[in-house]
Amino acid sequence: MVVDTTVRSIRVLVRAPDPLTHVAVSDQLAAEPRIEAVSEVRPEPADVAVVVADRMTVEVTSLLRTIKNSLRVPVVLIPSEVNRADLIIAVECNVVAVLPRVTATSTRIKEAVLTAAAGGGVFPPRLLGELFRQVEQMQSEVLSPHGLHTSGLTPREIDVLRMMAEGLDTAEIAEKVCLSERAVKRVISGVTRRLNLRNRPHAVAYALRSGAI
Hints:
Pfam families: GerE. InterPro entries: Sig_transdc_resp-reg_C-effctor (IPR016032), Tscrpt_reg_LuxR_C (IPR000792), WalR-like (IPR039420). The chain is α/β, with parallel strands linked by helices. The chain has 2 domains: about 10-135, 3-Layer(aba) Sandwich (Rossmann fold), CATH 3.40.50.2300; about 145-210, Winged helix-like DNA-binding domain superfamily/Winged helix DNA-binding domain (Arc Repressor Mutant, subunit A, Orthogonal Bundle). Helix content is about 50%, strand content about 10%. The chain is elongated.
C-alpha cells in the first residue's frame, strides 16, 4: 500500500487554563498522525483551535472572540460546565464542537478536531436541543416581528432569491412579485451589499446554505 505523504496535517492551537492540562491535551492530539499541535509562538497558522475552560467567563469569551477575529478557525470547546446562555455565545464565537470535560476522552477530542477541520460540528444531544430552542425563540421573538429570517434576509428578499434559483430572469421575477424591474434589482443589490456577497450566484448560494430557500 502506498501512503500519500503529501497530505498536510491538521494544525491545532491548544489553549488551556493551566500548563498541565495544556500539555495533556497537546500530547493526546500529537498521538494522532493527522494532527499537529502548534505553539502560539510559531508562525504557522492553525486550522482548528481547542479551548479548555472551567466555565464561560468573561476572560474565556474574550479569548474565543480573539481567536475568531484573528485566526478565523473553528473552535472545539472543552468546558467543565456550560449552560443555555453560554451555548449561544460560544456558537457566535465560531465554536463548532462542545465536549463536556467529564466525557472528553482522547478519542473524542481527536474526533472532534477532525470533524471541525472537515467543516462539521459535534454537540451533545441535550446541548443541541437547547441550541435549536434558542434559534426558534430568536426567530419568533426577535426576527419575525421585524420581518427577518435567521439568515438575515427579509421575506421579499427570500422570494426573489428563490425565483433566481429557479432560473427566472429579472423581468419574470418582477412580474411575479408585482414590482418594477428596477425595484427587483434594488432588492438584489441590497442583499449583496448588506451581506458582502459578490454577485447574484453568490447571493443564491448564501440563501441555500442558510436554509432560507
